[in-house]
Amino acid sequence: MVHRGTAPVRALEHASDWLNKQVRAAGNGGKGLHRAAEAAGYQGARAHEAERRTRTGAPAGGEAASYALARTVAPSDPSSHAVEAFEKVVVNLGWDRHSDKIVFAHTHQPLDGVTAANGRVRYWNAGSWIYEPDLTSSDSYIAYLRNAWPGTAVLIDDDGAEPRLLRLREHLNPLRRPGASR
């Protein structure tokens, strides 16, 4: 069961290893090389996700799409949309009069003390432990890796001045591995 549960992470590790080899083989190139490497990583992620869904019976058709359609903010979207929405709720409920720090767990994007454009309240979000890449395009996949990589938590410590975002699985993110494009 553990082996199956870690299959998406292993698949990304294999894709990242392949991607790193391709980048090293191509030499020290410029932005075009990084773009090609990102596209190759995206294709690898698509192939591995399709294989995982086939092997595990995970939803891949309408049942998966209906969940995605219920969202107003995708994990690959910029976090500013979610933060602005939370700011409206916090102000409407009057919570901004009682605190300048709020921890929530609604979007699947980790947040580390961010504020809305004109707000004073800082927000932390626990993110997600679910690997759910946006594979609609290479750009969406890269945005997912940057904005919503899973494996985060928020530590609330009475001795700390503020909550702290912990990125416990960041070392598995293909963009953060040594030699990967950023």
List the helices and strands and how they pair.
Elements: H1 2-5, H2 7-25, H3 31-56, H4 62-69, H5 80-93, E1 101-104, E2 110-115, E3 122-126, H6 138-147, E4 152-155, E5 164-167
Parallel strand pairs: 1-3
Antiparallel strand pairs: 2-3, 4-5
What does it look like?
This protein is α+β, with helices and mostly antiparallel strands and 182 residues long. It has one domain (2-172). Helix content is 45%, strand content 13%. The protein contains 6 helices and 5 strands. It has helices spanning 2-5, 7-25, 31-56, 62-69, 80-93, 138-147, and strands at 101-104, 110-115, 122-126, 152-155, 164-167. A 3-stranded mixed sheet has the order 1-3-2, with helices on one face. It has a two-stranded antiparallel sheet with strand order 4-5. Strand 2 (110-115) and strand 3 (122-126) form a beta hairpin. Helix 3 (31-56) packs across helix 6. It is elongated, with a radius of gyration of 18 Å. The relative contact order is 0.15. The model has no long low-confidence stretch (mean pLDDT 76).
